[in-house]
Amino acid sequence: MQYWYVYYKVGAAEADAICARVRKMIESLPAGAPRARLLRRADGGDEVTLMEVYEPVADARAFAAVLAQAWAASGLPPELLARRRVERFEDL
Known about the structure:
Helices cover about 35% and strands about 35% of the residues. The chain has a 4-stranded antiparallel β-sheet. The protein has helices at about 15-25, 60-75, 80-85, and strands at about 1-10, 35-40, 45-55, 85-90. By secondary structure, the chain is of the alpha+beta class. It has one domain: 2-Layer Sandwich (Alpha-Beta Plaits). Helix 1 crosses helix 2. It is built from 3 helices and 4 strands; from the N terminus they run βαββααβ.
């Protein structure tokens, strides 16, 4: 099992609009997709760090394709996609 943490920074002024679109993208994931959460770093400023958490991921290759398709269909800016960092952890 894997646990995925996807994080990126957005401008504080656009954070609420981006969050709404990311939530909509998360809601579009197919039934059976890993549980998803959207988090915001507690300390603010001019930039806000957002994190998507997906757990548990049983089939990393299949979920990577599902997530990439969801992001492509979301209409979120391509430059935001380029800034996303994905970290994957697994149980010991």
